[in-house]
Design goal:
By secondary structure, the chain is of the alpha/beta class. The protein has helices at residues 16-22, 24-32, 67-84, 94-107, 131-149, 161-169, 215-228, 252-255, 272-277, 293-300, 331-343, 346-362, 365-381, and strands spanning 8-15, 36-42, 53-57, 88-92, 111-115, 154-158, 178-180, 201-206, 234-239, 263-265, 281-284, 305-308, 323-326. It has 2 domains: 8-185 and 364-381, Glycogen Phosphorylase B (Rossmann fold, 3-Layer(aba) Sandwich); 189-362, Rossmann fold (3-Layer(aba) Sandwich), CATH 3.40.50.
């Protein structure tokens, strides 16, 4: 389909599954505002048929990433840009940004590079096993951004102030070509002010099984609490897939020693909202995020949260009102905060009500759409 509107954006995201779960509703909202989108992505899911959105399937999946693959896709993208003549190119994630910039050397399009989080390689703690590899990767990524990605056509979209300051301090971006939009918003169906009525207190963590998400710390805290409160009606659950393509990946062998009747690994779940509604408290002791979607969704569903006092987590909650912050990798502090809900179960619905109010004020899809429209106007005006 050749979209003829001059309000056209080529939107690059490595995996279609990620686009559908994190960006589709935002893009549909922008289509309703008159924009048209061509989604460049890998064919790992069946693309939906939406008016104003078309799909171009590239070989962008990270399992097939290589420099040869990157340049092959880059020249394919050049051809697409020249034939479609978009107003802007909008790339999400490091791999998409590298791909878009290769094409930009030849097409000179206005570009938006969305970094929803600096990623695992910029986490504060990755463990000694990966420390040297991580340091080399950090240096390489920073060099690429500083000397190849940065240009007069580049604009950077971040989700938190820390990442923005980091790019400016690293001389990758300037204040006038960086924008902050805190999350991509949640559609109305993602909000619910339903209270917890179960007498069983259920702590849930929804995350890929990565070391830098704080999975091990959560499991250690669960084991301590299970042993301390043997007569209490407690349940601890983890939902998420095993991401073997990530060097921080944990395996079933890593988590199996912690699992028992009360501590459960339930695998990947498509219905995050249902899992949240079944819970009492949502826990995410991550080492770093962009602007955590699961924390947004938890609060939108009136569930208090416990998360780390780090970039992309502390920005999402109100400490002491919608949940609690803990230091990353601090099991003792995590136990203390989880224990507060065990000893004071009324806190669950009290803080849950505050969480819902906070989400209504800050996490709506309409807000994200409006902020994108302001960003587009600002970029195109300059």
């Amino acid at each position: 389909m050749n979209i003829t509107s001059n309000k056209k954006i080529i939107f690059i995201v490595p995996e279609l599954k990620f686009f559908l779960s994190h960006r589709l509703q935002l893009v549909k909202g922008l289509v309703n505002e008159g924009w048209n989108f061509i989604i460049v992505t890998a064919n790992d899911y069946q693309p939906p048929n939406e008016l104003g959105i078309s799909y171009k399937i590239f070989d962008t999946h990270r399992k097939r990433f290589s420099f040869y693959n990157l340049f092959k896709n880059g020249f394919k993208l050049i051809s697409l840009i020249r034939s479609e003549n978009p107003k802007m190119v909008y790339a999400v994630s490091h791999r998409s940004i590298f791909l878009a910039r290769i094409a930009n050397f030849f097409t000179r399009n206005t570009s938006i590079y969305a970094i929803s989080g600096m990623g695992s390689i910029f986490s504060a703690r990755v463990g000694t096993k990966f420390e040297n590899k991580n340091s080399i990767l950090q240096s390489l990524v920073l060099l690429v951004y500083k000397y190849l990605i940065r240009s007069r056509f580049s604009n950077f979209l971040l989700q938190n102030n820390n990442d923005r300051s980091f790019l400016i301090k690293s001389k990758i971006a300037k204040k006038n070509n960086t924008f902050i939009i805190k999350g991509n918003g949640l559609e109305n169906t993602k909000f619910s002010n339903t209270k917890v009525i179960s007498t069983k207190i259920k702590f849930v963590m929804i995350s890929r099984l990565l070391k830098d998400k704080g999975i091990v710390e959560f499991l250690e805290a669960c084991r301590i609490l299970k042993n301390e409160y043997k007569e209490n009606n407690l349940e601890f659950s983890i939902y998420g897939d095993i991401d073997e393509a990530n060097f921080n990946c944990l395996t079933m062998e890593d988590i199996k020693p912690y699992l028992c009747e009360q501590i459960l690994y339930r695998g990947f779940s498509e219905d995050v909202q249902k899992r949240i509604k079944e819970s009492s408290v949502v826990v995410l002791p991550s080492y770093r995020e962009g602007f955590s979607k699961v924390l947004m969704e938890a609060q939108a569903n009136s569930r208090p949260v416990i998360t780390s006092s780090v970039t992309g987590c502390k920005d999402v909650i109100v400490d002491g009102e919608t949940g609690f912050l803990v230091e990353p990798a601090n099991v003792e502090e995590l136990v203390d905060k989880m224990q507060l809900f065990i000893l004071n179960p009324n806190l669950i619905n009290e803080m849950g009500a505050c969480a819902y109010d906070h989400a209504i004020k800050h996490f709506t899809l309409r807000r994200a759409i409006d902020e994108h429209l302001k960003m587009f106007e600002s970029i195109l005006k300059n």
